[in-house]
Design goal:
five-stranded antiparallel beta sheet, globular, alpha+beta, about 30% strand
Amino acid sequence: MKKEMPIRLPVIILIDGKRYFIDRRLKQLRNVFNPHDYIDFKDESELERFIRSVPHIRVWSKTENSR
């Protein structure tokens, strides 16, 4: 039996300084420090459109965190 490692979710930092995990499986942005602060999307394409259109400072992905 192969053990799966947890996946680190990418993080987006919005202009106002809030940091959100990008959870494509749940179609949500969830605040890194307050899980009760989240934004739901109806599907993954709506989530991707939001990420592309909203002003943000940076998106951190798994590969950037491993450096």
